[in-house]
Amino acid sequence: MIAELLCVLGDAAMVLSYDEDRAFAALSLSRFDSVGSARLDWRGAEVLQYSPAFDGGELRKLLGGLAGPDDLAIVFWGNLAVPSIALEAGLVAAHGDAVVACCFECWIYLVDSGALIEFQDGEGFTVGRVPC
User: For residues 128 and 115, is the Cβ–Cβ distance under 8 A?
Assistant: First the structure.
């Protein structure tokens, strides 16, 4: 499914190198502790919103309130063997259904606003500010 998403996005999405992935992770995911192997520990972070919905429409709604369409978004997948991608937040929103269909969990770091969206399939979205 992720390969199909990349085909649709074409040159609008950049597949990150390992070093680029780790640099963006250091600014976002790595600033959280984890609960288990694939969930962020939001204690101590500013949680902006929780949504029990887990579909592309809800992702579009969340992105619309957090980022402009041209803002940089980094999508980290739950499977570390799959490279992260960088693209405009508007494209993540436009392809929200495909993004959530690709995985059981993913994280979308909105570089310009410093917000992070965590998606857990079957549980919904958690949105918060990345701790300093």
Answer: yes
Degrees, nearest 5: CA angle 39-29-68: 110
Residue 24 Cα distances to 21, 52, 56, 57, 85, angstroms: 5, 27, 24, 26, 11
For residues 63 and 115, give the distance between their C-alpha atoms in angstroms, rounded to a whole number. 10
Burial bucket for residue 126 (CB in 10 Å: 0-12, 13-18, 19+): buried
d(C-alpha 97, C-alpha 55), whole Å: 6
Q: Are 126 and 50 in contact (CB under 8 A)?
A: yes
Query: Cβ neighbours of residue 131 under 8 Å, at least 6 residues apart?
Result: 31, 32, 44, 45
In this predicted structure, the answer to whether residue 74 has a pLDDT above a threshold of 90 is yes
Taking only the tens place, the pLDDT of each residue in 79-124 is 888 889 999 999 999 999 999 988 889 999 999 999 999 999 888 9
Give the single-character DSSP code of 88.
E
Half-sphere exposure of 2 (CA within 13 A, CB side): 17
